[in-house]
Amino acid sequence: MNYLSPSILSADFCNLGRDIKLVEEAGAPYLHIDIMDGMFVPSISFGMPVFKCVKKCSGLFMDVHMMVEKPERYVEELIKLGADCVTIHVEACDCVEQTLKNIRALGAKAGIAINPETPVSEVLPYLGMLDMVLVMTVHPGFGGQKYIAACTDKIRQVRRAINGQYPDVKLEIDGGVGLDNLTMNLEAGADVIVAGSAVFNGDITKNVKDFLQLME
Ligand code: DX5
Ligand code: ZN
């Protein structure tokens, strides 16, 4: 089973509710929420007040990607506001195991993300205590970047590690994913597909449907 997770970072923030409704009506099952702090990544996106409104206007599965230093500080509030999955970066957190435990104890799914330069080995010790691995396929911080081809092999490595022993763990990819490289990424083993600019630039309904058709 594959899941499309449109990233609202590329939505029209003047019409955020409208854009979210469009992806929901077109059949996307997840919504990807990119929270950036200007420290872990150079840019700042949005925080709790915006997420609170997004949650109010959508019934989609809230897939929250924390590009934030010490993300453990925000886990409880995010889940209270309705995050369904909270993904933290292994590079940004000193207490990964405890944070994963807290996320799950608070009733959400727990994920770990790895940057393009972070080896897959960094995530392996945690496979038994998480629900999703997020392999970044661009350097985090901005939408609309080019997919880094060297990351495809990391997707294959994570898939091999998951298969067999941890069949319930999902493998998400994020950055530079479009219709042109979607099939290759699915074949490499990704099953949650984040797409920002490829969904929100142009005809949103058509873009979502085109993605979903290739993901069948
Ligand atoms: C980037 C974010 C992504 C971003 C993807 O750091 O984590 O979720 O929105 O945008 P695209 O799909 O345009 O690369
Ligand atoms: Zn993201």
Spatial arrangement of strands, main beta sheet: 1-8-7-6-5-4-3-2
Terminal CA distance reads 8 Å
Number of DSSP helices? 8
**H/E series:** EHEHEHEHEEHEHEHH
> What percent of residues are in strands?
15-25%
Corresponding CATH architecture: Alpha-Beta Barrel
Q: CATH class, anyone?
A: Alpha Beta
Which structural class best describes the helix and strand composition?
alpha/beta
Keywords for this entry:
216 residues; alpha/beta; TIM Barrel; 8-stranded parallel β-sheet; 8 helices; globular; binds D-xylitol-5-phosphate; binds zinc ion
Could you explain the architecture of this structure?
- Helix content is 33%, strand content 20%.
- With 216 residues, it is an alpha/beta fold.
- Strand 7 (170-174), helix 6 (182-188) and strand 8 form a beta-alpha-beta unit.
- Helix 1 packs parallel to helix 8.
- The radius of gyration is 16 Å and the shape is globular.
- The model has no long low-confidence stretch (mean pLDDT 98).
- The site of D-xylitol-5-phosphate (DX5) has 22 residues, from strand 2, strand 8 and helix 7.
Short description:
The chain has 216 residues and is an alpha/beta fold. It has helices spanning 16-26, 48-56, 75-81, 96-105, 152-162, 182-188, 197-200, 204-215; strands spanning 3-6, 30-36, 61-67, 85-89, 109-114, 132-136, 170-174, 192-195.
